[in-house]
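Here is one chain, start to finish.
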Amino acid sequence: MIPITVVDVRDAEPYVLEVLRSGVIAQGPMVKRFEDTFAEIAGVKHAVAVNNGTTALVAAIQALDLRPGDEVVTSPFTFIATLNAILEAGATARFADIREDDFCVDPDAMAEAVGPRTKVLMPVHLYGQTADMGKIAPIAEERGLALVEDAAQAHGAKFDGRPAGSFGLGCFSFYATKNITTGEGGIITTDDDAVNEKLRILRNQGMRQRYEYVMAGHNYRLTDLQAAVAIPQLAKIDQITAKRKENAATLSEGLAGVPGLVTPTELPGRSHVWHQYTVLLTEDAALTRDEFSAKLTERGIGNGIYYPKLVTDYACYQDNPNVIASETPVAKRVTEQCLSIPVHAGLTDDELATVVGTVREVLGA
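Its structure:
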């Protein structure tokens, strides 16, 4: 089986051993080093490490002091953590349709979804390419809205040279399948000194200093062991991204012209980091998306459907008054057509050729 993703953290061994020998395995100097390095990558003043990507989203929204009924406008085509974080932070979620060319929220639809209770715009930078921040950021500024970027899949991605996570509050995940991983972990990026201080207090049980409690907080801390796993990866982030870009280009070239298969593109002005390589199976394809997925699995090609439903389609949310669903036809169609195939940095040339050949064979191209 050629897997959809591969985790390789062998370079972390000396850093992990350093932590173990130090005796400081909870949040400590390695977390600080991780934060400083990531802040530089994201082009911001501050990066606050937390225990996972969902926590990053929750804490970012909590730091904005929303009141019950205040709304966050986001995409319905995303991992469920996006919605769960909004609800956990006590806000109401409203949704805008996406664009098919980048799988991200449509700025025009987002603008239309803004209402009198809207306080936050939350674009999701899906699959490794940013949303259209050239249009979304001005909407937030003109309407006095906070901007929270769900950048869980976009480590190092850029829009017009500006890194993901530098437009507002950036929320990243370091789950095991991400381009950079700590196993579980997250980080929030910001240029706002006051928000940075509040996030650091929030993640540490509401303490400014030991036993000086200034707000109701949480245990959102990351450990030094987890930070140690990420640090050598951050040193190679350009190399990792370059390999993913090279693999994506090979896939796109090899799969060009297959009937009914739409390959993803890196849009002008954006720097795609290819967390996933996601194709669409249209009505012109020889197989349905699900049939295609089954055939690839039979032939040893790992694949994944990210995501098979809109977040609003699950029964557990449909009677929730804080989940305001709307018609999002593009997003709905994409859930029925999308499939991701291997693009990770561990692929060999032979494996890439096998992926291309198998896809073409299965689709009769």
